[in-house]
Amino acid sequence: MTTQPGGTSDEPIIGIDLGTTNSLVAYCDATGPVVIEGTEGDPVVPSCVRFDPTGGRHEAVGREARDHAVEFPEHTVFSAKRLMGRGIDAVKDEIDYLPYKVVSGDHDTARIDISGRIYTPQEVSAYILQELKTRAEAHFDKPVRKAVITVPAYFDDAQRQATRDAGRIAGLEVVRIVNEPTAAALAYDLDRQQDSTIAVYDLGGGTFDVSILRLNKGVFQVLSTAGDTHLGGDDIDRAIVELIQKEIRAQFGDGLSFPPSTRQAFRSFAEATKIRLSNDESAEIEVALGEDRVYHRTLMRTELIDIMQPWVEKTIDACKRALRDAKLKPADVDQVVMVGGSTRIPLVQQVVGQFFDAEPYTALNPDTVVALGASVQAAIIAGINREALLLDVIPLSLGIETMGGAVAKIIVRNTTVPAVAAEKFSTYVDGQTNVKINVYQGERELTKDCRLLGSFDLTGIPPMPAGLPKVEVTFMVDANGILTVTAVERRSEKQASIQVVPNHGLTRNEVDRMEMESYEHAIDDMTEHRLIDLRNQAKLDIRQISKQLEKVGDEVKADYRAEIDTKVSTVQQFIDDREADPNAFHQALTDMDHTTIRLAELAIAKTLRDEGLAD
Ligand code: ADP
Ligand code: MG
Fold first, then answer.
1. What is the pLDDT averaged over residues 171-199?
2. pLDDT per residue over 581-602, tens digit each?
3. Would the CA dihedral through 525, 531, 532, 534 be positive or negative?
4. Cβ-based neighbours of 334, under 8 Å, separated by 6 or more
């Protein structure tokens, strides 16, 4: 092993897959990555925590909690990852499916209520991370403090930050957050000398992600990502539960209601049935309802395929989006890497194979592949494995508000991180000494359709005429996706900046909605954005013209003056017309500018004379 400055390489950095359903820990040394198993030889820690009935302390983590979840539905917490770093409104749809109580906390965040004791999803995740940390410490027989943790590719800033916080609560320094699909590609240890395009298809219990990666000269680059945090094996479990409940009601009466413990039992049962049907052609379902009532039926694989078909199609839609963003066709993809327990479903492998016209990679266990990849990334950071470098992308464009509610995009979506971009702006009002910088994320052209990430003021600009200050706004996104925005006024060197960590960021649904809307509204938006720009420009120009007229009006001949007035009033009409045709507006503006060139020349000549620089 090598020693590197500032630390020794004998402090292990572990790789953690903190899954919605299952979590794992792995470690990579010079011989390669391995999953660290528990004392009973089980590599998986179910992401499940049981509290005691009063909610005062946690009683069980992992398998033990999962196995008895049915008995203690109100104080067993699973799927906490779905609540991480999210607002209560964003998780409304989930709550019906969670037998425990979810309530609203500070900043309208989602919290978990166990008999009146409130837990944040970060705390619940921390119990799972602690379990993994303990496993690793038992394995190495020494303390472990550093970890790489994976997250779904579409996790926004707030969700990544929440994951980092969960690590800190568990006593882990999270040295890097890595996207799950990118970790999977690392685990496959593809031939780094060969340039290739890889699709990573990750269908787990709760989330779906697809990433298009390029492996070029030993460097991984994420070209694009797409997915859905509301698509996974759980949906199929739920569909089976609904089917069972519907049939039971039809058979034994509509009035039948199912308490939480029964609903949870249905879920476990449905999952077992689904998994059986990955291997067998049929599965028996039997539910004893008491009072000699027994529901029994045989579920055929073909029936399940009918249920799954539209669900798999949704994943293919996301694959198409990812390819479109990467400007590629399915045939451009050389390798397809399958990740997540749900990729064991034969229908999934078949549909994905057909779409990409390639045999999907299934050699590595789809449950452990992400953790293995996380440990490979950890080894790269520790200096054990320096061969590969990993780059991620920004999921939605970042920009600032300009006059009239338009958004100027500064970093566009799918730019690889770390990224830096700058743009120059000016003021719109004479003597303006403050500039408010509003930072937005989204694909649409107008602020009202994007998400405000944060604001700050650049103050103390010396008073200058409108348009003269040179305000340079720089966006910097670090390797972990954290955005810092800096604004500098170049003439005075006044500077202000913020690090943008939103309350609870964008939900995946918002990302999806914003992306969809941006396509639907692209034309309207462009028109409106253009009109805003034209209005701003026209107002500045008219102000300029009136100043010049003040200065040299007496030198201007009457017919020239009349011509200027006509052009200005035409442009003024366009400014006031909400429905103006941008092309006609642009033409009028060009005419006015053209007409007033002579006026500008007169004004400049006068200025030079006044300052004694010309005669
Ligand atoms: P996550 O990343 O969300 O934690 P995993 O990758 O561990 O999820 O996948 C868990 C999902 O995989 C669950 O919905 C589970 O039912 C499903 N699953 C596991 N094995 C199989 C199988 N053989 N057939 C179908 N689904 C499976
Ligand atoms: Mg997973």
1. 84
2. 888 998 899 899 889 888 888 8
3. positive
4. 196, 197, 198, 358
* Interatomic CA distance for residues 314 and 60, integer angstroms: 36
Taking the C-alpha atoms of residue 88 and residue 512, their distance in angstroms, rounded to an integer, is: 18
Scan for tokens 């954290």, then name that residue.
482
More confident call, 521 vs 262: 262
Hey, what are 355's tokens?
A: 């779409």
- Ligand (nearest to CA of 45): 1
For the CA of 343, the nearest ligand: 1
* Lowest-pLDDT range of 83-97, 219-233, 382-396: 382-396
Taking the whole predicted model, whether its pTM rises above 0.85 is answered as no
Give Cα 397 to chain centroid, integer Å.
11
Task: Give the chain's domain count.
Answer: 3
Q: By residue range, what is the domain housing residue 481? A: 398-504
d(CA 207, CA 547): 60
- Asked if residue 443 belongs to a domain, the reply is yes
State the ligand closest to the CA atom of 78: 1
Same-domain check for residues 480 and 563: no
Mean per-residue pLDDT of the chain: 85
Give residue 44 CA to ligand 2 midpoint distance, Å.
11
Top mutation candidate among 278, 280, 342, 348 for ligand 1, by most atoms within 8 Å of CB: 342
Distance 288 CA to ligand 1 centre (A): 26
- Write the residue with the smallest CA distance to atom 25 of ligand 1: 275
Catalytic residue numbers, as ranges: 17, 81, 180, 202
In sequence order, the 6+-apart residues with CB closer than 8 A to the CB of 567 are 588, 591, 592, 595, 596
For residue 594, the CA-to-ligand 2 centroid distance in Å is: 62
| Residues having CB within 6 Å of any atom of ligand 1 | 19-22, 204-207, 232-234, 271, 274-275, 278, 340-342, 344-345, 367
Q: Are residues 455 and 500 in the same domain?
A: yes
Which three-class secondary structure state does DSSP give residue 189? coil
404 and 467 in a single domain? The answer is yes
454 with 488, same domain?
Answer: yes
User: In this structure, is residue 366 part of a structural domain?
Assistant: no
16 in any annotated domain: no
Give the pLDDT mean for 303-326: 96
399, β-bridge pairs = 409, 440
The token pair that represents 405 in the structure block: 């509610």
Q: Residue 94: inside a domain, yes or no? A: no
Ligand 2 centroid–CA 423 distance in Å is: 38
Residue whose structure tokens are 């078949």: 350
Among residues 244, 273, 307, which one ends one of the domains? 307
Query: Which residue is closest in CA terms to ligand 1's atom 19?
Result: 341
Tell me: do 477 and 537 sit in the same domain.
Answer: no
Enumerate the β-bridge partners of residue 477.
419, 483
CA of 76 to the centre of ligand 2 (A): 21
Higher pLDDT, 117 or 194: 117
Query: Nearest 5°: phi and psi at 457?
Result: -110, 135
DSSP three-state, residue 293: coil
Helix axes 582-595, 597-610, angle to 10 degrees: 40
Closest Cα to atom 5, ligand 1: which residue?
Answer: 204
Tokens of 522: 């692209």
